[in-house]
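Table S2 (text version). Query chain:
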Amino acid sequence: MSTDRYTSPLSERYASREMQFIFSQDMKFRTWRRLWIALAETERELGLPITMEQIDELKSHAEDINYDVARAREKEVRHDVMSHVYAYGVQCPNAKGIIHLGATSCYVGDNTDIIVMDKALELVREKLLNVIRELADFAEKQKAQPTLAFTHFQPAQPTTVGKRATLWLQEFFMDLQDLDYVKGSLRLLGSKGTTGTQASFLELFEGDQEKVDRLDPMIAEKMGFAGCYPVSGQTYSRKVDTRVINVLAGIAASAHKMSNDIRLLQHLKEVEEPFEKNQIGSSAMAYKRNPMRSERIASLSRYVMVDALNPAITSATQWFERTLDDSANKRISIAEGFLAVDGILDLCMNVVDGLVVYPKVIEKHLRSELPFMATENIMMDAVKAGGDRQELHERIRELSMEAGRRVKEEGADNQLLSLIAQDEMFGLDEKALESSLEPSRYVGCSAHQVERFLEEVIRPVLRENEAVLGRIAEINV
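Corresponding structure-token output:
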């Protein structure tokens, strides 16, 4: 590790080696060479005077990139693509004359960008599915555990721990749907020439339009893609980058929401993220168990959500068939968006897999608020016994305000049931009232909703993708 210059925390601390390789120099330049081979093969198949010996020579050096030659050449010519064309030609002297034939720089640059994003989306998809699997298992396990729900972070009608987890799960599932749509729509640029007109190839094939039309589909098939974008300028539309990064920003938003909820629940001591035996929560306060992984999820997620502005602005500001003010921004924003989301999903897997639930604390909090939530049932029981609904409603409102005042001003326990039992209007004793405070009576269809959602929506998708499940997240720090 270099200690005398800046290194990205995304590489050193957060992103996996898998994702780092996808955005590595080896991946990039080996893909360039695969694309040059595909172009040469296609041009030969369409009748240009390219020999199999030349293609075999290109294939023999597809992996062993002579970076030193390319770097030295780039210092002279200030052009990365032509530097690598030169370096490839040094290794392949018989084929150097047909490398990059008819193509412009974007043939290797843009097609590689699409291939890299497609590969990176596949890894994101695998990790997202594993987060979904972990959340589904957690929701199923906790589907019937009553807990206070919150609206405006104020106690509200109870839900269950598992039902709350399905709210997180549903958002990640939406992200999966978005990812699948965008990934499924990715196409290569193909070989469109300097302004997207394929003029150079029409010249190479001596005006044979049929051969020019066959060029892009043949290259796409060799590179494992369904096809190429039908029209372009010199580059593929930068709106493609916008769509891809918006998928990542959606995942980041879902992760951020979940991590916020977990942080709040950890404050309440109801749910806790995993905390390792020798982990230090605070340099000053040795007793602390800070939700540092959930906080890191939120921190990285904010970065990705803001990063999504980069390709949107780049797309909006491209001039006509191309300008080069996209290049430096793309090199940073696309790679870092993926590296950050990779780290986020590893953290999500780790946190959800190790979530600890404290039922006794949950029950204590629920019991302290349940008398307020039971008032409607109590009122109905009093009406059945002959009471006036409107008068009972007003009286419960008054007693609730008094009980709430004592809790807040005197620090007393919630005495609402005692106040109601002492009021002759209700005709109910405290024992009868206590029997109405069974938490499971107030969670509605929560457990049933969890079961249906998992069985009808989530489990079928997990079964379809069983081969990629079972990942274990490795957290560097």
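Notes on Table S2: The two ends are 16 Å apart (CA to CA). The mean pLDDT is 92.
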